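I am going through a labmate's work and have reached the protein record below. What it holds is a sequence and that sequence's fold in C-alpha cell form. Please read both lines and tell me whether the C-alpha cells look consistent with the sequence. Do not assume that whoever made the record got everything right. Thanks in advance; the entry in question is below.
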Amino acid sequence: MIDTGPTSHSFFSQRLRLHYVDWGNPDAPPLILQHGGRDHCRSWDWVAEELRKDWHVICPDLRGHGDSAWVSDGDYDLNAYVYDFAQLIEALGFAEVSVIAHSLGGNIATRYAGLYPEKIRRFVNIEGLGFSAKRTRTEPGHSFDERFRNWIEDTRKAAGRLPRRYSTLREAYERMKGENRHLTDEQARHLTIHGASRNEDGTWSWKFDPYLHVWTFNELPKDEITRLWERITCPTLLLWGKDSFFSSPADDGRADHFQDARVIEYENAGHWLHHDQFERFMADVKAFL
C-alpha cells in the first residue's frame, strides 16, 4: 500500500461541494487525473505516486462520486460534468494543465479540450470517447422520443433504487474483484477501501449515487461531438485495452478527428488498462508527458 497520501480539499460548482485530492508540489506543472463513472479519485493513487515528483497532481471526484456531493434531482448531465471540470481549473487558477482521464472522465476532458484548446498542454485519454457511431446507430431507442421515454422509465426505476449493502467490507472487495479479473488483490483492496463507506447499521455501500445508472437522453449530435474533437490542438494519446467492450479509435476511424493523436492498444487489458497493465501504462505516459 502507499505510505504517504494526498491532502483533501473541496470547491463549489453549481452550489455543489465537490471534492479533490492534492498530491503537493505546487511549483511543478499542474496535472489533472480524472476518474471515470462509478469510480473515485483515489483509484489514481498508484499513478499519482509515480508522477508527483515532477507534477502538481490534482485528482477530483466527479459529482455523485467518491466524496463529492450528490445532485438533488438525480440528473447527471454530461454538460454539468464539463462545467465542473472547467470550474475546478478556474478555482485553482491554472492557466494551462495536462490531463490524464479515463472513460466518462475522458469524455468530459475531451469536450473541455475542444472548448478551450489553449488550456490543455497534453492529454492522455483512456477509453474516453464513448461508443462508436456505428454502435450508437444500431442500438435500440435511437430516436429522440424513444430515448426520452426510456429516460423517464429508467429515472423512475432509479427513484426506488437503494444503494446496495454489503454485510462486510470483504464482501464488497469480492464484488470489486469479480468486476475486473485483471485486478491484483492489493489493487482491489485499495479501490474498495476508498470506494465504500459504512452505513449506520454497520453494512457497507459504494459511495456513488444510484442515480448514476441513468444516462442522459439529450446527448449532443455525433457531428457536434466530433467537431469538438477536431478543435483539440494539444498532443493527444489515446489508450485502449484489447479486451475492452469499447472499440478502438484506430479501427473505427474516431482517431482521425484529432489533429495530433496517437493510439496505443494494450494486450491483456480491459477498460481499466491503467490498472491492468500498470507498468507499461506508466512507461507510455511518462514518455508522452
The chain has a mean pLDDT of 94. DSSP finds eleven helices and ten strands in the chain. The first helix runs from residue 45 to 51. The first strand starts at residue 7 and ends at 13.
